[in-house]
Amino acid sequence: MSSSESSGNWLVLEGRVLATLEVATTRRDRRRGLLGRDGIEGAMMLAPARSVHTFGMNFAIDVAHLDSSGVVLRMTTMSPNRLGAFVARSRSVIETEAGALARWGVLVGDVLEVR
Question: Which Pfam families match (predicted)?
Fold first, then answer.
């Protein structure tokens, strides 16, 4: 793991810890994202990011686009080998295994925090 990618963070909703969170902030780390993995236990944040793709991915993912305040603007589930929507107001993206956002009760309009 590079110095810009950190796994000592938590994804939090209304004071409730949802998952461990890896944060990818360099262009290299964002480009690599979840490629080459067979899954993810927690979640990954790509920042900055306005869109993502799943070309070369081994599993489907949930994607949440967040604005600069952490407000969830859009959520979608993406199968492998897809190009995601460009969300102009998005400043970061949360990626996790498909179905996780629903299990965690995340909805559009919620505010997600990194702690």
Answer: DUF192
